[in-house]
Amino acid sequence: MITPKLKNIIIICVIGIIVLVIVIIAVKSLINSFKQTPEEKNENRIINSIDKKNVTLKDAEFVTMSDSLDAAFNYVFGTDEEAIYRVLERLSTIDDLFMLMSVFGQRSSDWREIIFAPLAAKGDSGLGSWISSELDEEEIAKVNEILSKKGIDYKF
Predict the structure, then answer these.
(1) N or C: less crowded end of the chain, CB within 10 Å?
(2) Rounded CA gap, 113 and 96, in Å?
């Protein structure tokens, strides 16, 4: 039989464990927010080199394309590679690609990762990081081929 004193001890332990898990998740998120991977540093350098005269699409188109990529990466049944290819096929210049990277910015992980692996969440990532984490080698090769056919000299 559980005594009232033992019941209180169990409740305090459960609450303590819940608080500990929340603190661990918060600290991990905070630490990740200060880290910048080499890919992110490279993306920041690239974004700062955009020549606006060579950008062929409107700002609103880049917003729509970025949101389409985000939806493709967070597709319910995995990654929608075809949607990613369709977006990249709209680019005409390397500055279009850099502008897309800039507008895409740093995006957070989707609901699946938050629910199923909160301690392993990758946090905010740029387009290059999303492509390298969501696509396999063959799919990345296709992305690079799409860009190459457009005369865009950039490899993911």
Answers:
(1) N
(2) 30
∠ CA(156), CA(134), CA(23), 5° rounding?
115
> Could you tell me the two tokens for 146?
């799409």
Write the pLDDT tens digit of every residue in 75-104. 878 899 999 999 999 999 999 999 999 999
User: By the 8 A CB rule, do 28 and 117 touch?
Assistant: no
Phi-psi domain of 143 (left: phi exceeds 0; alpha: psi -120 through 50; beta: other): alpha
DSSP string over 27-47? HHHHHHHH---HHHHHHHHHH
Distances (CA, A) of 136 to 17, 60, 67, 85: 38, 30, 21, 14
Distance CA 71, CA 64 (A): 11
